[in-house]
Amino acid sequence: MVKILAILTLRNEAAFLLEWLAHHRAAGITDFLVFSNDCQDGTDAMLNRLDEMGLVTHVRNDGPYGKGGIQFTAYKLAEKHPLMEAADWVMTLDVDEFVNIHCGTHRITDLISALPEATAITLTWRLFGNAGIVRYADTPVTDTFLRAAPVVMHWPWRAAMFKTLYRNDGTYTKLGVHRPRQPDPARVGQARWFDGEGRELDRKFATGRVFSNYGQSNYALAQLNHYALGAMESYVLKAARGRAVHSDHMLDLDYWVERNFNTDMDRSIQALSQPMQAELEWLKSDPDLSRLHDEAVAWRKTRFMELMLEEPYRALFGRLLTTPPSRPVSQDAARFLTQFANLGRQARRD
């Protein structure tokens, strides 16, 4: 059996964890190495129970943290973990990212079989917008948020960022947020990278790129559904938690506007809806997991009410209510922006 390892870092996201786990078990991930830190909603307790059941391996990441912060400290721990050594393929993910395979039976092994020569496969984000949903509800993310950015985006480049499914063959020795790092000089020359359309990528992807070429489709074989916003209430909680890599930076409207695209309907992830629902029902049949999930849902609702008593979060919520969905930038406008980005890079070199 091909062993596919997902590495995940979590804080206060127990209300979403069971759906995420159910989906990725249905998608064919075999092992989950999950790090938690500073949880108030029972995420760590839920992970302990899942660990007892043999479904994930939970590692507490309580610090101290290196200069890379919480996430990179977790990755350094993961690099030394036995699950990493045993894995055939590895991918770092966040709980708001859902692997969405379009080929075969919609499992990750189908993607690997479609690209048998690949050292690494990029799964480009498809940004799923808020769709005007204000109140947080305990319903599956993949059933709630169905509106997304268009297949072809010309701006911003963040809309074309990817996560990497890569072969754990020693070509890369360090984990990264978007791609494996620290390539072995003796091996990287033979590395072959392919995108979600099945196209072989040029050499710069083997050593440095973190986003796909924009202005084209990148999703024919696979995409990564990115539910970065959620309901407006959930976004207020996300803002209070801080950015994933820079946790001391509060999220604001800039993050929201660059991700709130709702032009297209995309139900493709529901190709795995039946096996995901079966997995989810099985997980919730465990009394401890069911209780912990319900407690996490209640915590989110209480936490939102607490935050709304503070002016920065009340103001943010008001801005979310008044901000319309983001409008995709035209190709001509994107070219105008890109020329200044290129000029800026050239000026820094000079």
Q: Biggest sheet, open or closed, and with what strands and sense? A: 9 strands, mixed
What proportion of the residues form beta strands (DSSP E)? 15-25%
General form:
globular
Order of helices and strands: EHEHEHHEEHEHEEEEEHEHHEHHHH
Task: Tell me the distance between the termini.
Answer: 52 Å
Give the total of domains. Answer: 1
Low-confidence stretches: none
Number of helices: 13
Mean pLDDT: 96
- What structural class should be given to the helix and strand makeup? alpha/beta
Q: Bin the helical content.
A: 25-40%
Itemize the secondary structure elements and their pairings:
Layout: E1 4-10, H1 14-26, E2 31-36, H2 43-52, E3 57-60, H3 69-79, H4 82-86, E4 89-93, E5 97-101, H5 108-114, E6 120-127, H6 141-144, E7 147-148, E8 162-167, E9 172-174, E10 181-183, E11 193-194, H7 204-207, E12 222-226, H8 232-241, H9 253-257, E13 264-265, H10 273-284, H11 287-307, H12 311-322, H13 331-349
Parallel strand pairs: 1-2, 1-4, 2-3, 6-11, 6-12
Antiparallel strand pairs: 4-8, 5-12, 6-8, 7-13, 9-10
Helix pairs in contact: 1-10, 1-11, 2-11, 8-11, 8-12
